[in-house]
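Late entry, evening session. Most of the bench is empty. Finally got around to the prediction I had been postponing all week. Sequence below, unchanged from the version circulated by S.P.
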Amino acid sequence: MKTKLFYIVRFMMLPIFLLGLGSMHAQVLNAPEAAPNQTPPAGATPWNRACASGSFNDYWVQFTWNPPMVNTDNEFVLELSDADGNFSSPVELARDGTKNLVFDFYMQFTVPVDTRGENYRLRVRSTSPAVTGPASVPYPMYYIGVNSGLTIRQQGQSDFGDGTAQVCDGNSITLEVYGLANADTFQYNWYMSGSPLSEKSESITVSSSGMYNVEIDYGACSGSGNTLSNLIDVTSGTSLGIAINPPAKTDLCSGETMPLEANINNPSLTYTWYQNGAVIPASNNYIYTVDASNPGFEGDYEFEIFGPGACVERSAALTITNAGNFTVTRDNTANIVLLPGQTSTLSVSTGASAPTYQWFRDGNPVSGATSSSLVVNDTQTGTYFARVTLSGGACASTSLDSESTVVVTPASFELIVDYANSYMSCESTSIALEVSTINAVDAGGNRTDVTSAIINDFSYQWQLDGANVAGATNSSISLTDPSENGSYTLDGSISTYSSSSNALSVQLLVNETLTITSTGLVSCGPAEPITISTTTNLSGETYAWYRNGTDMGVTMADLTVTEQGTYQLVLMRNGCPLPSNEIAINPLDENLISLDPAADIVFPEGGSRTISATGGASYSWLDSNNVEMSTGSSMTFTEAGDFVLIATIGNCQVVRNISVSYLDTFKVPNVITVNGDGINDQWIIPNSYSNKTDVNVIIYNEKGEEIINEFNYQNNWPLSSASFPKQNMVFFYKIRNASEVLKQGTITVIR
């Protein structure tokens, strides 16, 4: 059954008509311009820079745009660039969804608190349709968050002191802004004796005498901020020639102390000591004592002075070293296993000169064990280390212990095997198994990891499901074929010991690709079934078909389906499921066939209209008698009636009913759009007025001059060659017969 829709065009519904056009043509958005303040009482002149603060932050721009119109859900959004005029991350300032029929209006905004720069730009974009307008001219814009005097000091001081500082012998000092949150986010204007300097950061290094101060650089708005700081009077001075007096020694042994003394002792001076460039806390004294009992005491020591009559200066560095600094290295493995009758040699090495040795077992000295090595047997189990002592030099008697060695004689061994690399059951196609740990277990059940010491001394035999694997006599085994699936264990033996490992299950996936194909991907219903099949021989195999992840309970080699869903074949191979690719069968979506314009069309009698179809593989246009008129993707209609389009998608057909009717114009339109799109380009009046030899149609321009005066009006004004120099031009019309005026009004021409 065909559904016929009638289109009634009511030209008096101007907003709806124009909104429809707006979706087909981009709007023309103009750049916003600075405007006088519109908050009562309104200002008289537009702003040329935005100097906002906590007490004033109210700014306006004027925005204009040209139709076609926007959609009813549109909003105009005012955006701000970064300080360089870049809109890569714009900041939204204002949003207005009430001006969709207003072509010239104001937008109000406030300046964000982090705004500081000379080249900010503004722009407006619409949301529906999405159109972005051009950027405005650049504007200086600042939020004056700080509007009080800054404080500066000499770097390193706790405050600005007495407002003076001194430069020693042509060296330099650093002045800085302090007490200001986020000081590094501002730019500054530094002055020396009233003359501006080039530095713009929160600190400045100076070497010349003068009166220094600073203010925040607010650019074009600097006059709006009262941030000028206190003055620092920098004068030139002479170095006191400070240095660290040579100490008795600079190479210290552990436990020793050594005082470092400044060459100037003046209680009025402030002393600060440094180690390796870092301040030593609580070191305000002309003497600092280095304690070699503290780890990391070695390094470069300096001191700095500050105070009346003294320039800030730092001494040359003095290096303190560790005279007892040597190393002891264990040369054997951490764990040693001794089987009955076996011995092993423990040994250490050292970089110390003239060392002495003493071995310890379980914390007690071993009698006579005073060399760099020690031989132990299976009856001498325990934990061993060597103590190395300096026998001469500056730090005689300094000792250092080696790392410990555990010597065990086991009651048994424990073999632990594991997967050598990442493994997923029924997903991996190969895997290696290996000995991961060998533990020596004593009579009390205590375990010691001795893997590295004896892994190569064991004899091995791998087993699959309890049976020996021929030739598998190494500490590892590689498996690459699903026929090798099963439970693996490892038997190991050494001397009189034998051990069996834990079991590892191996389920390898066959290295095979299972592929399914289908006769179609779109379901047209029971009348057009789809067959899904595979080229893999399924005879005698165990398999299942799945739809949307659920077993369909069917075991046929070729699957016939009529329902939408995602289909997959799963074949069991050597105990592992082998899944195929997935095939998605989708329902027929009639929306894949698109018509432009919509299926039901209206045009003036005597005219024509073309409909274009997309999305199909083939097309057939039929009249009301089912006679085929065309097989192209487009059809031009010249007569009213009911028609049918049959489009094919894959195996399916989509049927669209099309109603063609003549334009039933009940009113004289008061708006036309001469944009060449074939829609409302000419002034079409009702049939009761047009094509009538006894009806006179007269059109006047804005000056009252006749531009049309004719009987038998053919609905053809304006001609395609007519030009309209301005937007939204207004014309006047009269429609009359011999005795009276039948209709009169205005025509707005939008181009």
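Two things to note before I forget:
The radius of gyration is 47 Å.
The longest helix spans residues 14-22.
Will write this up properly tomorrow.
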